[in-house]
Amino acid sequence: MPKHGLQPDRYTFPCALKACASLGSSALWQGKEIHHCVIRCGLESDLFVGNALVTMYAKCGSVEYARQVFDRMPHRDVVSWNAIIGGYAQNGEKDKALRLFQQMEMESVKPDSVTIFSVLPVCVSLVDLPQGKEVHDYMRRAGLLHNHLVGNSLIAMYAKCGSINDARNVFDDMSHRDVVSWNAMIAGYAQNGCATEALEVFQQMLEAGVKSDSVVIASVLQACAHLAALLQGRTIHDFVLRNELDEEVLVVNALITMYTKCGSIGYAHKLFDEMFERDVISWNAIIGGYAMHGYGEDALKLFYRMQQIGMKPDHITFVSVLSACSHAGLVDEGWQYFDRMSQDYHIRPRVKHYACMVDLLGRAGLIDEAQNLINEMPLEPDADVWGALLGACRIHGNIELAEKVAGHLFNLEPENSGYYVLLSNIYAAAGRWADVTKVRIMMKNRRLKKTPGCSFIDVNRQINKFLVGDRSHPESDQIYAMLETLSGQMKEAGYVPNINFVLHDVEEEVKEHMLYCHSEKLAIAFGLIHTSPGTPIRITKNLRVCDDCHSATKLIAKIANREIIVRDANRFHHFKDGVCSCGDYW
User: Fold this and answer.
1) Nearest one of 207, 165, 202 to 181, comparing CA atoms
2) Residue range 236-291, pLDDT digits in tens
3) Which end of the chain is less congested by CB atoms within 10 angstroms, N or C?
């Protein structure tokens, strides 16, 4: 323009700066040149031009320059505030974005929906529920809640901050919902472990005539995976096929994960092999699936295949690979892949990778090596790392070390009752009942309660839940009669109850009765009553399967001529013909 004798004005500069902003950091130097022209033309104090400069610098990744321009502006409007708040949010400086939002209110500048869309994701990423509620209250006062896009953001914010009831209240109060609204609610339930509610909302969505998309389906499949609801998962799979969503990578990845977590690793692999296009998530899903099922060598073969085709693994891939080595006891291979992470793929090991290695070494009885690895960690060990070592102490009966490790865990997660129970288990196995009592008193003083063992079985698309000693089920009489029959058959086959981990100093007969009605045994008995002979029985348990139930289930599988698939808190067990896929190494 200057070459042709034309002078840029307050309308020209914003257009040029917008072009630079659209190109990102590569156009920063050009944006700075335009800024110099702005100064020469005496337009830096112009509100319209100033807003464009703030936006340009923020979108080019130079939020410091954006802030300098913002601070020098003699006049600022809501667009100015939106530009700088959005700039901080987009450049990862979440705390500064929130502080500016608070300052904006103090200066009596009224935020608009653009401001809210910048601030709510910040609350989500910081998991700042109180601040999120403040934003929500402001929107209510400002009359912004009629906008369904705002409602969608609020649902996502509350769900990711763990306040799922608040998310549902927002959802229910919305006068208009689009597919994003439904997905936010379904995903929120799935992410917060409310799988049944997620499936109910999906059903309501279909009844409302809202067409679902791949994102919705992925969330629903996540819910099915959480519940190990295979029959419902298959129904969703049929829906996917009818609606021609089976070529969406996101959907097929979710299907692979669902079938894997529902115990059908073979079908998951079939889907994986049939994929036209795979991304790293696809590979992670199937490798992680084989690891979870205890098929370590198969997982490593898939990893080798992944490398052969040139697919670059990420940090999640290596968590699955190291987990596969741990479940299969492949110590040498585990060290090899742990070293290759940084050497071959330039992936710096994270705490989760160290936790996998400690678990691998601890299970294999290499306690000293596991301790040395923790001592040499460049990162601070978290509860997963110490928890893996405490688990190894349980397996190998190392009480002295268990007490030290438990101390770390009690400091890191004082409200987690599982670590107290695990230490109590270790004492009970050694017959140290006085120490068991001490742990119980400690839990009582801290108002902690043991998480009750709970098992689920999906029969005819109905999830049945059982607790230890449960007699609340309407078919309890038939279930206990089946257990009585199985108990007699198992004893004839040589079964001897393993009472070592009963956490009560009582007579052996009482201990045997306590083991007799563990939740997974009740679920298995129910499954034998309600499923056809020869069909697999699939059980999900919220805790680790105890040694006695593991031995008993092997015998039941042989006696009943069934495959019994149990997903516990750590992995899958496939019981068939009197043996378990874990090889009794778990």
Assistant:
1) 202
2) 999 999 999 999 999 999 999 999 999 999 999 999 999 999 999 999 999 999 99
3) N
Q: What amino acid is encoded at 283 in this protein?
A: W
Phi, psi of 252 (to 5 degrees): -65, -40
Q: For residue 563, what are its two tokens?
A: 């495959």
| Residue spans of alpha helices (H) in 1-147 | 12-23, 28-40, 47-59, 63-72, 78-90, 94-106, 113-125, 129-142
Q: Please tell me the distance from the alpha carbon of residue 39 to that of residue 43, in angstroms, as a whole number.
A: 6
What's the CA gap between 555 and 108, in Å, rounded?
73
Contact assessment for residue 360 and residue 322, using Cβ atoms and an 8 Å cutoff: yes
Instruction: With CA atoms as reference, report the closest residue to 468 among 522, 540, 518.
Output: 518
pLDDT tens sequence across 86-101 = 999 888 888 898 888 8
Q: Give the tens place of pLDDT for each residue, 186-232.
A: 999 988 888 889 889 999 998 999 888 898 899 899 888 988 888 88
- Which tokens sit at 422? 């695990």
Cα 546–Cα 364–Cα 567 angle in degrees, nearest 5: 35
SS3 category, 509 = helix
CB 359 within 8 A of CB 392: yes
pLDDT at 270: 96
Exposed e or buried b per residue across 231-253, where buried means at least 16 C-beta atoms within 10 angstroms of its C-beta:
ebbbebbeebeeeebeebebbbb
Beta bridge partners of 565: 538, 574
HSE-up (13 A, CA, CB side) for residue 371: 11
CA angle 122, 124, 126 (to 5 degrees): 70
Least Cα distance to 460 among 262, 203, 236, 229 occurs for 229
Whether the full predicted model's pTM is greater than 0.70, yes or no, is yes
Strand order in the sheet with 454-459: 462-467, 454-459, 537-541, 564-567, 572-576, 579-580
